[in-house]
Specification:
The chain is of the alpha+beta class and about 150 residues long. The protein folds into 2 domains: about 90 residues, no CATH class; about 60 residues, no CATH class. The protein contains 5 helices and 5 strands; from the N terminus they run αβααβαβαββ. The strands form 2 sheets. The chain has a 3-stranded antiparallel beta sheet, with no helix packed on it. The chain is globular and about 50 Å long.
Length: about 150
């Protein structure tokens, strides 16, 4: 991230997207709830993780580094630390029963009310801020299901 930001600065640009040969990088973290659970038993590792992910989410986007964090649940304990969560709100997708549980949504989609609904496999709610004004508020979302 630091090297990419230096390269952008040397080129006299403000954003990585102005650099024609600088690709996007996605950091995918699956089962982040399990990671947080494992870190909760070691304060030093937890503090290190929170510092690193906080810094990465705060300045990584300007360098073209994007965080994709996944969890079975949308609770505070199952997701990114508060400092990082504020910087990765571009897209939130809830599938299945989590989309209908207010306690699961309260940290990732605060301020939005949803009617009760039963969701099928691959169905839920999504909010994708960078996809235009329509998606700034949560909408029904359905993923493809390949068998």
């Amino acid at each position: 991230m630091r090297e990419r930001n230096k390269e952008i600065k040397r080129a006299g640009k403000e954003k990585y997207s102005e650099m024609p040969k600088m690709p996007d990088i996605a950091l995918v973290i699956d089962e982040i709830g399990s990671l947080n659970g494992a870190l909760s038993i070691n304060r030093q590792l937890k503090a290190r993780w929170e510092a690193v992910i906080g810094k990465l989410t705060a300045t990584g986007a300007s360098a073209g580094i994007h965080i994709i964090a996944m969890s079975q649940y949308g609770t505070k304990e199952s997701f990114l630390p508060t400092t990082a969560r504020a910087n990765v709100s571009d897209a939130v997708i809830f599938l299945g029963s989590a989309a209908d549980t207010p306690s699961d949504r309260q940290y990732l989609l605060p301020g939005f009310e949803f009617p009760h609904r039963t969701y099928g496999v691959g169905q839920g709610m999504a909010r994708i801020v960078s996809a235009g004004k329509r998606w700034e508020s949560p909408h029904f979302f359905e993923t493809p299901n390949f068998k």
